[in-house]
Amino acid sequence: MAGSSRLTGAGDPEATGSPATRRRATILDVAAAAGVSRQTVTRAINDMPGISVETKRRVLDAASTLAYRPSRFGRGLVTGGDSQLGLVVSDLTNPYSPELAAAVVRRAAAEGWSVSLVDIGLAGSADRLLHSLHAQVDVIVGYLGEWALGWESRFGATPLILLDAGADSPHAGINLNPAAAIEDLAAHFVAVGTRRPVVLDASEPHATSGRGSAMMGALERRGLSPELVHASASTPEHASAVTAQVIRRATPPDAIFAFNDLMALGVLSACRHAGLDVPRDIRVAGVDGLTIGGLVAPTLTTLAVDFDEVARHTLELAVALGDRRPDIDLHRVVSHRLVLRESA
Amino acid sequence: MAGSSRLTGAGDPEATGSPATRRRATILDVAAAAGVSRQTVTRAINDMPGISVETKRRVLDAASTLAYRPSRFGRGLVTGGDSQLGLVVSDLTNPYSPELAAAVVRRAAAEGWSVSLVDIGLAGSADRLLHSLHAQVDVIVGYLGEWALGWESRFGATPLILLDAGADSPHAGINLNPAAAIEDLAAHFVAVGTRRPVVLDASEPHATSGRGSAMMGALERRGLSPELVHASASTPEHASAVTAQVIRRATPPDAIFAFNDLMALGVLSACRHAGLDVPRDIRVAGVDGLTIGGLVAPTLTTLAVDFDEVARHTLELAVALGDRRPDIDLHRVVSHRLVLRESA
DNA sequence: CTGAAAGCGCTTACAG
DNA sequence: CTGAAAGCGCTTACAG
């Protein structure tokens, strides 16, 4: 190595060993290698007319040799580039997130948008993630939770579409409304003779969820006296634990309405381990309409979210906001739908 | 509208109604509005030193009024931009895809990469999707299937990392190896007294999958005579149908090894509907290690993929290829691991 | 069929 | 603290 040229000090690890990171080839490098101008390279690379087959071949060979790749920034600057959607979910390991993502990705592809996926539930790095996402995309959509607070001052004019953040949110948003489906399910419970229903709610601090209290009300209005219990965490495991306690009583419930499908799976599991038959001994229902609910045994009755509908609104809002054309209804509502299956 | 200026013809729909799409504000617009130079705008927007609080305020106000957002292309051209990974899956509705995606997104975030998610199983549009993806990302990784053929000629030098494409693939790749886990499971089956195992394979045309024949061999070597059956499609529903037939026989199987977890769920479902107890009457195992397998009742024994390990290799390869530094092992292997749960 | 010029929107030195 | 200049890598007219 003595005598070889180097730009860095002797102690620099970058200066030692193996083929170092080479500067990426640009259009000018290819042009020089092929002995043509850069616009001729553009013609060859982009398959445009007005270039002889022989020249094209020579250019493409040079490009290949140099491992040339057009810079998406250089190109995007002049063409405008594709639109990019940033999808933020809070926990990719909850099947709810990918079902939403699948619908959004599908719809986005149909509209010519790309989607960058971010899991904001990741330990500590949420702020950094949002910063880098906001620099890469045209519109951000998703479950931002507390991170939506002070958005304007932190991320300037990056349009934001909030999922299920409430109708009074200052941002554009899509809200889920389970009210009608809850009434339908309550009516169904009554119709099949339920007497002692339990509402198994999530673990929101000191509070009852909207869907929890809605179900309580719907059952009470029909003359039942539902019991409200909370899981200490919104997981199938905790749902299972609470269920195990409740069904061990002298007069156990004959129906359990779980906060979501994942928790309902925990309920099903606890019932099975206790030797209870669902739905004969006890009925179970969840919320979300996850695909998995149709694959377990018994299949799960649920209040399903129409993810395609959510995705449709998402892209509609994204396109409008991306075009700086906010002359549309910025608050959409998607209703849940009762899907009766074996468990209830 | 008469007399108002318009650039387009009278019949142009763009010329009618509502605030039309305005040109997006640039840094120069903000500079003009605030009465400063563009580099002062840069300082304000990017929170850099060397600017008075009062000037900064004025610039930020102007930016806000104009809804200014820095162009990611302009910025990327000079800063280099973040690295972007394109993740291609074949079917986002199969839980396998999101579990992989979750791991990759998590790891990518840790390494400062963004990931764009594409579902190539979408009707017909695969080619268009790959084209637009290849223009947006630095490296593409995933299940490309037949689309990996002729990659070089179609997408030039865009680095490609193939998942589970076989060790003889010309591209960089990560391969899954179930061999050892299959031996472990076969040994377990034998140890617990299995006599009549069935291997329920996927519906690959006229062929037996690698894992299917590996399991057949592993069982035969242990003195058993396993039966091989194929589902007419690789879905839980078809797995369910085949299972229903097989367990109806005079001497039904006492164990079923399914091609993957999703099909194993179908098997569980069929067993339950037939009144068979798992694992007492019949044992069931799948492949993939999906989270859902731990949530159903009975919980599913499986050969688990270490998605974090796959993600780790993915990012390692992506970084190396993105840096044009292919002096590393371009073919990685991740082994399955036997996870014994209730079903077997 | 090919190339010289202009410009997309930014940031990074550098000069005041 | 502020601004004039240069340049990132590409494509789009335009001229030959």
From TrEMBL, chains A, B:
<dbReference type="InterPro" id="IPR028082">
    <property type="entry name" value="Peripla_BP_I"/>
</dbReference>
<keyword id="KW-0805">Transcription regulation</keyword>
<keyword id="KW-0238">DNA-binding</keyword>
<protein>
    <submittedName>
        <fullName>DNA-binding LacI/PurR family transcriptional regulator</fullName>
    </submittedName>
</protein>
<keyword id="KW-0456">Lyase</keyword>
<dbReference type="Pfam" id="PF00356">
    <property type="entry name" value="LacI"/>
</dbReference>
<dbReference type="InterPro" id="IPR000843">
    <property type="entry name" value="HTH_LacI"/>
</dbReference>
<dbReference type="InterPro" id="IPR010982">
    <property type="entry name" value="Lambda_DNA-bd_dom_sf"/>
</dbReference>
<feature type="region of interest" description="Disordered">
    <location>
        <begin position="1"/>
        <end position="23"/>
    </location>
</feature>
<keyword id="KW-0804">Transcription</keyword>
<dbReference type="GO" id="GO:0003677">
    <property type="term" value="F:DNA binding"/>
</dbReference>
<dbReference type="GO" id="GO:0016829">
    <property type="term" value="F:lyase activity"/>
</dbReference>
<feature type="domain" description="HTH lacI-type">
    <location>
        <begin position="25"/>
        <end position="79"/>
    </location>
</feature>
<dbReference type="InterPro" id="IPR046335">
    <property type="entry name" value="LacI/GalR-like_sensor"/>
</dbReference>
<dbReference type="Pfam" id="PF13377">
    <property type="entry name" value="Peripla_BP_3"/>
</dbReference>
